[in-house]
Amino acid sequence: xxxxxxxxxxxxxxxxxxxxxxxxxxxxxxxxxxxxxxxxxxxxxxxxxxxxxxxxxxxxxxxxxxxxxxxxxxxxxxxxxxxxxxxxxxxxxxxxxxxxxxxxxxxxxxxxxxxxxxxxxxxxxxxxxxxxxxxxxxxxxxxxxxxxxxxxxxxxxxxxxxxxxxxxxxxxxxxxxx
Length: 178
Fold this sequence. Notes:
Strands 1-2 form a two-stranded antiparallel ribbon. The protein contains 8 helices and 2 strands, in the order αβααβααααα. The longest helix is centred in the middle third of the chain and has 15 residues, at 73-87. It has 2 domains: 8-104, EF-hand (Recoverin, domain 1), CATH 1.10.238; 121-176, no CATH class. It has helices at residues 8-20, 33-42, 53-63, 73-87, 93-104, 121-126, 149-152, 171-177; strands at residues 31-32, 70-71. Belongs to the TPPP family.
């Protein structure tokens, strides 16, 4: 192999990582169009000038079997050859393919744009239970933990005593004394 070239095994490893991305049933032997497009984007094969997302979709459709929705590694290699010539214009087929392999080797699906926990001052202020007043204050215990349903609803006292009666539960004691 030439100096600085990337082995097919490294590309196949990356192919497998992208093939299983987001699909719990995937075995890593076939890749769907969505993951192929993600791989092209994450590995900077799509540069917005020579290769666009449309180009990637067209090449994917061209190399896959007529009724299939996925491509194998062999079909994937064919697709890369086509994209390599588009991405690295003016280079020989082998040279362009090596460069595209270089972009892919060792890459994994990036979780860009994964939702992070918002930690803004406004959120802190809104969730600070010590600043709550009135009936809203009743929704939390001393530690600031919510009481759940008990804090949101007036739970009626069905003990049979009048509201605010201080001697509830003392009837039996009075009857025994008599």
